[in-house]
Design brief:
This protein is mostly helical. The chain is about 75% helix and about 0% strand.
Length: about 500
């Protein structure tokens, strides 16, 4: 069997593994929403390509000049649409094939993924406009191919940083610095003359005969670097390399006063501090919350009322929406133990509600100086905090009834893919846009002040009655317990 045949076989096995997943029916709805989102993104890229083509005024090179911008944007978008290729490698490590072959096949798959070619929706309209403006066909074709190859290069750069970020979150900083380097001349030179020279240099060298071979050589080099990294990290996880011994074990004795709920609070806190998957998600979410909170509070970027309200709810809802959207996923590793004792799930869900409600204090405190400066009102941030703690948590917690995919606590490279189902995507969208729609309707009908008061009342109502709707969730979970347990067990990484 040659490598091409092996590649086809691995592709076939990957598709079969998705179809055999217990969440396949849910994932079909998720794929539908993804296709709708991809269609909207494609339309946006087409409009953007037309705009750049108009600005170019018939001269090639403008799209290459914008390469640092859309490559940086692409790097951030790939955190949503692309995962590390080692995830499906584990079953083939012990097979009688070359130790690098499986990893190579999945790296090649990253090169030819549909997302890479989605950017053609921007490059092709731009090229067509240049052709009609009188530019030579050869030069336009060269720029088109170069831009597309740059996106393939970007996928390899992303895989390099993403693999390292999975190991240590601090690697996200070098990734951001790498994509910020092209904009350094703009910050160092107030008049932008240095930046203009750099843009001219990009256009001149990007349209030369040697640019494309150099980019292809860099892609090949990164391919072998990524292959080596993936191989090392996959084997390290499979061999279960011993973790560093803890020098100090925190007891969190403060939570003892809350009884069984306090014990689950300890588990939730320690899981976010120690387990790789949860710790990475926690750090990313908290950093994003702090960044967006500081931007909204202390800059004039979003000073109109609509954007202020949108980003305000985003600052409060982001952490819960990203962490709770897969609620019960980490508990899927030991769900049988939780089911053995009556009403254990109630105490667990109550602990989660308290924990994620307490986290909302972080953006609230960061926004207080902006309130004192008169940019926001205390009523506004209180309303969004209470609405998130009560109503939005009530909505997101409903997923505890339906989620049945186990999330590995430590594995980052060899873990199975945990794709979101349709319910998760819909609830995420509602968490980010629902409150803004409520605020917009309230603004038009009764004014913002009364809207904030109603939001406070709604939030407090769900907070004070959390024990009632948590018990309702528990009762519905018990009706589906055998189906959910089967799903959790079959999606574990052994």
């Amino acid at each position: 069997m040659n490598k091409f045949q092996l590649y086809r076989l691995l592709r076939k096995n990957t598709n079969l593994s998705y179809k055999r997943s217990p969440a396949f029916e849910q994932n079909k709805w998720a794929k539908l929403l993804i296709y709708i989102g991809a269609g909207m993104f494609a339309l946006y890229l087409i409009l953007l390509g037309c705009d750049v083509g108009m600005v170019a005024k018939g001269e090639a090179g403008m799209m290459l000049a914008f390469a640092p911008i859309y490559m940086a944007l692409d790097f951030l978008l790939r955190f949503i649409v692309q995962t590390t290729p080692g995830m499906m490698v584990k079953p083939y490590i012990l097979q009688p094939i070359s130790r690098y072959t499986a990893i190579e096949c999945f790296l090649i798959d990253a090169h030819i993924s549909g997302y890479n070619f989605l950017w053609l929706c921007m490059f092709v309209p731009y090229s067509i406009i240049l052709l009609f403006a009188g530019e030579s066909f050869g030069l336009v074709l060269l720029e088109l191919i170069t831009c597309e190859v740059l996106m393939i290069l970007n996928s390899q750069i992303y895989l390099f940083f993403r693999t390292l970020i999975n190991r240590r979150v601090v690697w996200f900083i070098p990734g951001v610095v790498f994509y910020a380097l092209p904009f350094a001349p703009l910050m160092l030179s107030p008049k932008g003359s240095t930046f203009d020279k750099m843009i001219d240099m990009i256009i001149a060298h990007g349209l030369s005969w040697y640019a494309l071979p150099i980019i292809l050589l860099v892609i090949c080099g990164l391919f072998f670097v990524n292959r080596h990294m993936q191989f090392i990290f996959v084997y390290e996880e499979i061999s279960k390399k011993a973790e560093r011994q803890l020098k100090h074990v925190s007891q969190f004795a403060f939570f003892n006063r809350f009884g069984l709920v306090g014990e689950y609070l300890k588990i939730e806190l320690k899981s976010n501090l120690r387990n790789k998957t949860m710790r990475t998600r926690c750090i990313f979410s908290l950093v994003a919350v702090v960044i967006f909170t500081l931007l909204v509070s202390y800059t004039s970027i979003y000073d109109n009322e609509l954007m202020q309200n949108f980003w305000c709810i985003y600052c409060f809802a982001l952490y819960g929406a990203t962490a709770l959207i897969k609620i019960m996923g980490q508990e899927g590793n030991y769900i049988e133990l939780l089911m053995m004792h009556r009403e254990n799930i109630i105490a667990l869900l109550t602990a989660k509600f308290w924990f994620y409600s307490a986290v909302l204090i972080i953006p609230f405190v960061i926004m207080l100086p902006a309130v004192f400066a008169g940019k926001y009102t205390l009523l506004m941030i209180t309303a969004y905090m209470l609405l998130t703690a009560g109503f939005l948590h009530f909505v997101i917690f409903q997923l505890a009834v339906y989620n049945k995919q186990t999330i590995p606590l430590q594995l980052k490279v060899t873990a199975k893919g945990n794709f979101e189902n349709g319910r998760q995507l819909v609830i995420e969208l509602f968490a980010f846009f629902g409150p803004v729609l409520i605020t917009g309707l309230g603004y038009l009908l009764i004014g913002l002040t009364y809207t904030y008061i109603i939001m406070c009342i709604i939030g407090l109502a769900f907070i004070l009655t959390h024990h009632l709707w948590i018990r309702n969730i528990y009762n519905r979970m018990m009706k589906r317990r055998y189906e959910n347990i089967e799903g959790f067990v079959s999606t574990r990484d052994f």
